[in-house]
Write a structure and sequence with these properties.
With 221 residues, the protein is mainly α. It has 9 helices and 4 strands. Helix 2 crosses helix 4, helix 4 runs antiparallel to helix 7 and helix 7 runs antiparallel to helix 8. It starts with a strand and ends in a 12-residue tail after the last strand.
Length: 221
């Protein structure tokens, strides 16, 4: 039996005929087609929209935690040679939802949890990474490109102007992607009856209301 979690309105069941589905922009239909699970497939969790403010605060808390961890990593001898503060933050945010049984720190503090919509279990490590790769994956690639450029520079001693130009392009691309994607994902969370952003569609997950529980940092149910 499918259960409904959260405080938002139930999403009406849509007919399997694509022509009768809710009218959405073409690009949204294409994104939803990449979902791990069909909206018509039997699942244990029927996603509904949870409080947007709680998810927003949870995100801010996770950002603060990631920043704190990046500061700790940077005081470790020689760590700053291999990783930057920004890279550490992005990696932490990428997998944050795996910890505390799908809660992370921010969602845990706000009484939220990420679960697999088919099994109802807390999201696994791969699912946590998949739902956040949409937000941070390209940034990780850009960090990798920057690292390669540093290695190339050590070997070839590129002109300073070339290094500056490359890193400016990298920063601009990362900024443009972030400005475009994060607001769109927030809009989906706020506007959709199931509260699922594309990352959730891609990973087969949903955010639900759940009790706070900091007793199991990495264990799953």
């Amino acid at each position: 039996m499918t259960r409904s979690f959260g405080s938002g309105p139930d999403r009406p069941r849509q007919d399997k005929n694509p022509e009768l589905r809710e009218d959405k922009p073409g690009f949204e239909n294409r994104l939803d087609s990449l979902s791990k699970y069909s909206e018509d497939e039997e699942t244990k969790v029927k996603p509904v929209r949870v409080d947007f403010g709680k998810r927003l605060v949870a995100g801010v808390i996770d950002m603060a935690v990631a920043y704190g961890i990046s500061l700790v990593v940077n005081v470790i001898p020689f760590a700053a040679v291999f990783v930057t503060s920004n890279l550490v933050m992005v990696l932490v945010l990428l997998v944050r939802d795996y910890f505390f049984e799908g809660r992370g720190v921010g969602k845990n503090a706000m009484g939220l949890q990420v679960v697999d919509v088919k099994s109802g279990l807390p999201c696994g490590f791969i699912q946590a990474a998949k739902r956040n790769i949409v937000l941070f994956g390209p940034l990780i690639i850009l960090f990798g490109v920057g690292l390669i450029m540093q290695l190339v520079n050590l070997l070839l001693h590129l002109p300073e102007a070339v290094n500056t130009a490359v890193f400016e392009v990298i920063n601009i691309v990362g900024m443009v992607y972030t400005i475009a994607v994060i607001p769109y994902e927030a809009y989906r969370v706020y506007s959709r009856a199931d509260g699922r952003r594309f990352g959730d569609q891609f990973a087969g997950t949903a955010v639900i209301d759940a009790p706070m529980d900091f007793s199991k940092p990495v264990a799953r149910q």
